[in-house]
Amino acid sequence: MDEPLYFDDLKIGDRWQSPSRTMNDAYFAFFAGLSGDNNPLHYDDEYAKKTPFGARLAHGLLTMGMTAVGASPLSHRLHESMIAFLEQGCRFLRPVLVGDTIYPEHEVVELQRKGERGIVKLAARIKNQRGEIVLDGFHVYLLRCRQRSGGST
User: Fold this and answer.
1) Running DSSP on this structure, what letter comes out for residue 71?
2) Per the count of CB atoms within 10 A, which of 34, 64, 67, 105 is most buried?
3) Exposed, middle or buried: residue 74 (CB in 10 Å: 0-12, 13-18, 19+)?
4) How far is CA 17 from CA 35, 106, 152, in A?
5) Which of 104, 103, 93, 108 has its CA nearest to residue 139?
6) Model pLDDT, residue 153
7) Is 150 exposed, middle or buried (CB count within 10 Å of its CB: 0-12, 13-18, 19+)?
8) How confident is the model over 5-19, as a mean pLDDT?
9) Tens of pLDDT, residues 84-141
10) DSSP string, 75-140
11) DSSP 3-state assignment of 20?
């Protein structure tokens, strides 16, 4: 098992890839039920065929949710240092259609030490099976720094 990560262990440019996921009916139906978003673009094949996308489109928030750090290799490495999830944002660059396989990844892009804590900004990106970036976003977290052995006197 990998060692826990704290703020002071991170470096600009550190990267992690999450497991791929194929966007299927189960994801679409679950998210529609959870969110109440029942736009036919997400569930009606015949309707979606008539749109510029030509097929059912993943909910934007579902796609963004696939960047969750809790579903990434970072989850078990940050659980001891995580204090708070502070902010997130994203841009949707290409559609994610039913049947697409997505590949989420995170990269450390900014580090700000704040005493015994630190703020880390992660780029959150998703590529599709063709290697195209479909989502470009970010997450901001507040993490603990490592305890210094010996302490100050």
Assistant:
1) G
2) 67
3) buried
4) 27, 6, 38
5) 108
6) 39
7) exposed
8) 96
9) 999 999 999 999 999 999 999 999 999 999 999 999 999 999 999 999 999 999 999 9
10) HHHHTTTEEEEEEEEEEE-S--BTT-EEEEEEEEEEEEEETTEEEEEEEEEEEETTS-EEEEEEEE
11) coil
- Secondary structure (3-state) at 63: helix
What is the model's pLDDT at position 71? 86
pTM higher than 0.85: yes
Determine which helix (DSSP H) or strand (DSSP E) holds 60, and give its type and residue range: helix 60-65
Question: And the tokens for 65?
Answer: 């949710």
Q: What residues form DSSP beta bridges with 144? A: 117
Amino acid at 49: K
Long-range contacts of 144-149 (CB under 8 A, 24+ apart): 144/6, 144/7, 144/80, 144/81, 144/82, 144/83, 144/116, 144/117, 145/6, 145/7, 145/8, 145/113, 145/116, 145/117, 145/118, 146/6, 146/7, 146/8, 146/9
33 Cβ contact list (under 8 Å, min separation 6): none
| CATH (residue range 7-144) | 3.10.129.10
Query: Which amino acid makes up residue 51?
Result: T
